[in-house]
Design goal:
Length: 448
């Protein structure tokens, strides 16, 4: 098993629970892949590499966390409640515990937007509930087809779609957004509620790793996989270099020679842009491997601020008509109230922001706070940090959706796992977990 993100961890645990012997190799010292965290030294708080919100519809993910004994790390809403703010103050999408989709209709009635926009939102909801899946078209085209005007798009659909797909509506795949709406809003009211974390993602993965190792699984961090071993046209293991794990070992500067790890099956749960480099030249030239580089990438930028006082009085707020789309009070999520207030801002599909200076991005976050939150007038920014992930997700466009590969590959014994495989979902944690489970199922039901 190569890669200890959600896909690799889910596959490894599923196979271990079936009593397979599993070796899980992770190239970094921390776990989690593209959903991880580190400890901020001055504050001692966890800082995520981008805040990832889960939903009650994340059935596979929540089940995995509960099996691993990580339920205490979850902060689950009783029902969906999202706060938005603009110059006129707060408005909320508050969906009570009613049968779906009645809970959504009730919630939309309370969101501040023009009456015409409400009718347009209802029209799209009916199209999603009773219409056909919009294959092969962008979200912008889908919205236009169903009469979604500029106001309802600006106030409701575009911010939601960009957060879900990490892609603009002009580029994003309508089918992926349609499926998310189906799963989250049209099955049960509980599926739409938000699920937050009380700690950083690395803590979650450490809990998953402890569960995996307690059942006999072997996890090796800082294990750099260099190639997949192929014999007779079949995957027979990997060659990897075990790098020093402790500070003392790294100071000693000892270099390990590549070691073979024999296996009946190999699951590559690494990012799509790393798969080809692990394969021989003749194999990487074959489909689906030859097309993986075309999946592209969409970036995410996060801005972390520590303020000398409490400015934002909600756990999560959508920022209407703002470059910064969402702000989270991470201190409150982690169980700490009061100053310093640790805020995390998220910008999805952030291609225009990757090259901007840190000071400019921090200034944009501060300007947003001053614009919407009066308490910011006298507040001071104690510290700031900007995180950029140029390859946060694959590009969720209609053209590239057809390139997402299945879990099984043409090479016997070689499997793929990751949110970028053909999960029928956007690049989400739930997609990664489902992919890992599907890869494990494919391994367990294949002949050695």
């Amino acid at each position: 098993m190569v890669g200890a993100g959600f896909a690799g961890m889910a596959a490894a645990i599923a196979l271990q629970e079936r009593r397979h012997q599993v070796l899980l190799l992770e190239r970094r010292g921390i776990l989690g892949g593209r959903a991880t965290s580190y400890v901020d030294a001055p504050s001692g708080e966890d800082v995520d590499n981008g805040t990832h919100l889960m939903l009650g519809a994340y059935r596979a993910t929540l089940d995995l966390l509960r099996r691993a004994g990580a339920s205490d790390l979850l902060l689950e809403q009783d029902h969906l409640h999202l706060d938005y703010i603009d110059e006129r103050g707060y408005t909320s999408l508050d969906c009570p515990r009613l049968l779906a989709p009645l809970h959504l209709l009730w919630g939309l009635a309370g969101v501040r937007m023009p009456f015409a926009a409400r009718l347009q939102a209802l029209r799209l909801g009916l199209a999603v509930r009773f219409g056909r899946e919009p294959r092969g078209q962008t979200l912008a085209a889908y919205f236009a087809r169903h009469g979604q005007g500029a106001e309802v798009r600006k106030l409701l659909w575009d911010p939601l779609a960009t957060a879900v797909l990490n892609e603009t509506t002009e580029r994003g795949d309508a089918s992926l957004f349609w499926r998310v709406l189906q799963e989250a809003f049209f099955r049960t009211h509980a599926a739409s509620r938000g699920v937050f974390l009380r700690r950083g993602w690395a803590v979650v993965h450490d809990r998953l790793a402890a569960y995996f190792e307690a059942r006999g699984g072997v996890l090796r961090r800082r294990a750099l996989v260099e190639s997949v071993v192929l014999e007779g046209g079949r995957a027979r293991g990997v060659r990897y270099r075990q790098r020093a794990e402790t500070k003392e070992e790294r100071k000693a500067g000892e270099k390990a020679d590549p070691s073979p790890a024999d296996a009946d099956a190999v699951v590559l749960a690494c990012p799509w842009n790393e798969v080809a480099g692990l394969l021989s030249e003749d194999v990487r030239a074959q489909p689906p491997f030859a097309e993986l580089h075309r999946l592209g990438a969409s970036p995410i930028v996060s801005v972390e601020l520590w303020l000398d006082r409490v400015v934002v009085d909600r756990v999560m707020v959508g920022l209407r008509d703002s470059e910064m789309e969402w702000v989270f009070d991470k201190g409150r999520l982690f169980g700490r109230a009061g100053a310093p207030q640790h805020l995390s801002f998220i910008v999805s599909a952030a291609r225009r922001d990757l090259a901007r200076p840190n000071a400019e991005l921090v200034g944009s976050a501060v300007a947003t706070l001053r614009r919407y939150f009066p308490a910011m007038a006298d507040a001071t920014v104690q510290r700031s940090h900007v995180l950029r992930d140029p390859v946060a997700t694959f590009a969720s466009t209609p053209e590239l959706e057809a390139l997402r590969p299945p879990n099984r590959t043409p090479v016997p014994g070689l499997y793929l796992a990751g949110d970028w495989t053909d999960t029928k979902l956007p690049a989400t944690i739930e997609g990664a977990v489902r992919s890992g489970l599907a890869a494990a199922e494919a391994v367990a039901t294949s002949s050695p």
